[in-house]
Specification:
Elements (H helix, E strand, L loop, with lengths): L1 E10 L2 E7 L4 E5 L6 H13 L9 H10 L8 E9 L2 E9 L5 E5 L5 E2 L2 H11 L4 H8 L6 H7 L6 H15 L1 E2 L2 E2 H16 L2 E2 L4 E2 L16 H51 L2 H94 L4 H23 L1 E5 L8 E5 L4 E4 L4 E5 L1 E5 L4 E5 L5 H22 L4 H29 L4 H11 L8 H36 L2 H24 L10 H35 L5 H39 L5 H14 L4 E6 L5 E5 L4 E2 L8 H20 L5 E4 L8 H15 L3 E6 L2 H5 L4 E4 L1
Parallel strand pairs: 3-22, 3-23, 21-22
Antiparallel strand pairs: 1-2, 1-4, 4-5, 5-6, 6-7, 8-9, 10-11, 12-15, 13-14, 13-16, 16-17, 18-19, 19-20
């Protein structure tokens, strides 16, 4: 297999790329990060990764992270054309977790889209599985150490089994005979003997497929001998039964021949007039057909003139209703204008009312002298008065006037005015008390407060409070607050009226509305729009029904014209068909009459057909019974019962001999497998030879392979036969890379030499010194004659060392 072409619209960081590959060596040349590795990954994905990305799997997650375009691409796409056994195939894949697509195009151009069918074709095209290609064909030089770990039987049994089985086929020969051929020969002989036979149970493998239901094909000799014996046993028993059946069939055949002779005579009599009866049937059928057509034509001839008259009346009615509809539409247009006139009048009236209300509200607003600031001040004065009173109350004074010679006793308590009290009265005062008579004047102040200052503050605030009430024209703070609320309500109403006027104007000016109203004045009266619309709807519905009826009648007339062109042509054709019927009826009189036992020609024809079928049935039955009689006669055994019993004994001996032969082959197979297991230890020798030869070329004879164990442990020895450790990482970079490349070519060559193929080499000569690189170039050139090689490098000088198809990336 080899790659011919690769193209992609978008894959990871590359897009709109197409590359042609040739036989031999192809070099992908490009700078670092140019997309060489991406191209290789895309080729691998095209062959082995399903287009449906399952993001709950490791492969799906890794593919999305590595190859879907960054940052938010949701698909990748590639097409790979390749050649296998001179036939060209093409893979197309669009990877996505939802909108995925993929197909395999076959050499004949057919496209296979079902994944199961594609897998079947892949198994035919590719000699090995996905893991083998991943670890051998696509593995990079840098990852060869990881690759060698992966091909251990523990980590990757598929690949090691592939290599083991291949090498075993190639090298393990027994006395010059291929082991596989020898094993196949034993297996084939056993299969030829025991197919469909259970040797251990000594019985048919499937109990339901014995002598009564034997296999036709795919059976072994033991099964065949067993069936032959049992069939002979059955034939001996069947012989007597066959003889008795032979006699019974003879009697049945005689009766059938008598019935056949009778019905043949009846058929002969009817056949003499069959031709004319058939003609009569045809003429009758034609007459019936013409009668049906003339009947239809007469109906059309009657309907046609009526349809035309009805159509004319309908068209006149349509014209009248259309005119009425136009009048109604004009009336509704008038009604709508009148309605608009009324709406404008109403709007103007509402606007003027709102403007009047607005003016009234503005006047009321102007009459209210209260402001929020005044109410705040009024409240502040009141609070200060209350605070002063509270301070005075804190220094409460109490006195009692027990005796006084004065006639009049006056007191001043707190901030209150002067008042007269009686002798013996208890006096209470807030912070200050003054008692005055004609002879006495006593002032008492609380030592806890500054009464004079408090009184001054109280009087000043009391004065301001009273003055502000006078300005605001209120009797107290509650009335002031009420006025403030009334002011706010007036402002709200003013704003609401302004909004109402603006809404009524709807962006227009009063002058424009008045102008529109002037244009609409003087219109002729009209009914209510709804009333007119109902009449229009009713009339429109009537017109629609009229139009439908007119259309139906027009269509019917057009059908008549399509069938008969014109009414005159129809009448001419009708006259011709009636004459044709008269001619056919005359023809009936000339034909043979129908026998009395039949009511119609169809009954005659049906009965004759039934008699012929009955005759055929009898004849068929007679042939079958005659054939069965002959078969029974032929099946009667020619040999005697004694001869058949002797043959039965011979078959029993043959069956026993075949069973013994099968048992002997089983013993031979067991011994062979034991010997084969003993020889299996040398299965890696061809790989050792290839590896050693490649290593000698790469190291100019300095190193060669020592051995490769069954667990794929590799030992290397120098030209002095000194064995080196099997762990590559302990070698020098140059020797390590040489050994890795030598082993990889050896494995690839042993696996693919019978199939051909391609191998991917990254820049595998980086750690080679000039001499080893020269040897490596020679080794690659040698392998490119047998296989297609795709070599990636970023160094133009390294690419120039080869004669190859240079592909710039």
């Amino acid at each position: 297999m080899k790659i011919k072409n690769f193209s992609t619209e978008i894959f990871a960081g590359i897009n709109n790329r197409e590359y042609q590959f040739e036989d031999g060596l192809n070099i992908l040349l490009g700078d670092n990060e140019a997309g060489k590795s991406t191209v290789i990954n895309a080729i691998y994905a095209s062959l082995f990764i399903s287009p449906q990305l399952k993001l709950n799997t490791t492969e799906g997650k890794e593919f999305k992270a590595r190859f879907l375009p960054y940052p938010d691409g949701d698909f990748a796409e590639a097409e790979l054309e390749f050649e296998a056994e001179t036939e060209t195939y093409k893979f197309y894949k669009k990877w996505s977790n939802s909108n995925y697509q993929g197909f395999l195009e076959l050499p004949d151009g057919r496209r296979i889209e079902k994944s199961g069918k594609i897998k079947e074709y892949k198994n035919q095209i590719f000699p090995y599985g996905k893991s083998t290609y991943n670890n051998i064909v696509f593995s990079s030089q840098q990852d060869i150490k990881t690759t060698l770990k992966r091909i251990s039987a523990e980590e990757n049994p598929e690949l090691i089994d592939t290599i083991n089985s291949f090498l075993r086929r190639a090298v393990m020969e027994l006395d010059g005979i291929s082991i596989d051929k020898f094993r196949s020969k034993i297996d084939n002989q056993l299969e030829e003997l025991t197919k469909k036979w259970n040797l251990k149970a000594d019985a048919v493998s499937n109990s339901s497929r014995g002598v009564n239901n034997p296999y036709k094909v795919g059976t072994g000799e033991i099964y065949d001998a067993y069936i032959d014996r049992e069939q002979l046993r059955a034939r001996i028993k069947q012989a007597e039964v066959n003889e008795r059946q032979y006699e019974e069939l003879g009697l049945e055949i005689k009766k059938l021949k008598q019935k056949e002779a009778q019905i043949i005579a009846e058929i002969k009599e009817l056949s003499e007039i069959e031709s004319e009866i058939n003609q009569r049937a045809a003429v009758e059928l034609e007459i019936d057909s013409l009668a049906e057509k003339t009947k239809k034509m007469k109906q059309v001839a009657q309907k046609w003139p009526k349809l035309k008259a009805e159509l004319q009346k309908l068209e006149q009615k349509q014209e009248t209703k259309s005119a009425k509809l136009a009048e109604l539409k004009a009336e509704i247009e008038r009604a709508e204008k009148l309605k608009k006139e009324q709406e404008i009048k109403s709007r103007l009236a509402e606007i003027r009312t709102a403007e009047k209300k607005l003016a009234e509200l503005k006047e009321l607003k102007a009459e209210i002298s209260a402001t929020p600031e005044q109410v705040e001040k009024l409240e502040a004065y009141k609070n200060k008065i209350a605070a002063a009173k509270a301070s005075l109350k804190a220094a409460k004074l109490k006195a009692k006037l027990n005796f006084s010679a004065a006639e009049s006793i006056k007191i001043s308590a707190g901030v209150e005015g002067e008042k007269t009290v009686a002798e013996g009265e208890i006096i209470e005062a807030d912070g200050y008390l003054r008692i005055k008579t004609e002879e006495l004047d006593i002032e008492i102040e609380s030592a806890e407060i500054d009464f004079k200052s408090l009184k001054k503050e109280f009087e000043e605030n009391q004065q301001k409070f009273e003055e502000l009430k006078t300005v605001m024209k209120v009797k107290d703070l509650a009335q002031a607050r009420k006025k403030l609320q009334e002011l706010a309500e007036l402002k709200r109403k003013i704003e609401a009226n302004r909004d109402k006027i603006k809404e009524l104007l709807a962006g227009e000016k009063i002058e424009a509305l008045e102008a529109d109203l002037s244009e609409l004045t003087g219109l002729e009266s009209a009914r209510e729009t709804e009333l007119v619309r109902k009449e229009i709807d009713s009339l429109t519905s009537e017109l629609a029904e009229l139009n439908t009826e007119i259309k139906l009648k027009e269509t019917k007339i057009e059908e008549f014209k399509a069938d008969y062109q014109s009414l005159e042509a129809l009448k001419d054709e009708l006259q011709q068909k009636e004459k044709k019927i008269e001619t056919l009826q005359q023809r009936l009189e000339e034909l043979a009459s129908l026998p009395e036992e039949y009511d119609t020609t169809a009954e005659f024809i049906s009965d004759l057909k039934a008699k012929r079928e009955k005759r055929e049935e009898i004849n068929q039955n007679l042939r079958e019974k005659t054939a069965k009689q002959q078969q029974l006669e032929n099946s009667l055994p020619e040999a005697s019962t004694r001869e058949m019993e002797a043959e039965f004994k011979e078959l029993e001996q043959k069956l026993a001999k075949l069973k013994k032969q099968a048992q002997n082959l089983l013993q031979i197979k067991e011994v062979f497998e034991e010997k084969l297991e003993e020889m299996d230890q040398n299965s890696f020798q061809p790989l050792v030879d290839s590896f050693s030869r490649n290593l000698e070329v790469l190291t100019a004879g300095k190193y060669q392979a020592g051995m490769i164990d069954s667990d794929f442990s590799i030992k290397i020895k120098s030209a002095e036969s000194r064995e080196l450790p099997g762990k590559f990482e302990l070698l020098s970079y140059g020797t390590y890379d040489a050994a890795a490349l030598a082993l990889r070519f050896a494995i690839f060559d042993n696996l693919f030499q019978d199939y051909g193929g391609f191998i991917i080499l990254d820049d595998c000569l980086v750690n080679f010194d000039p001499e080893r690189r020269k040897n490596a170039v020679r080794l690659i050139q040698e392998y490119q004659k047998k296989y297609q090689i795709i070599y990636t490098t970023c160094d133009p000088e390294r690419a120039a060392e080869f004669e190859a198809n240079i592909i710039k990336v």
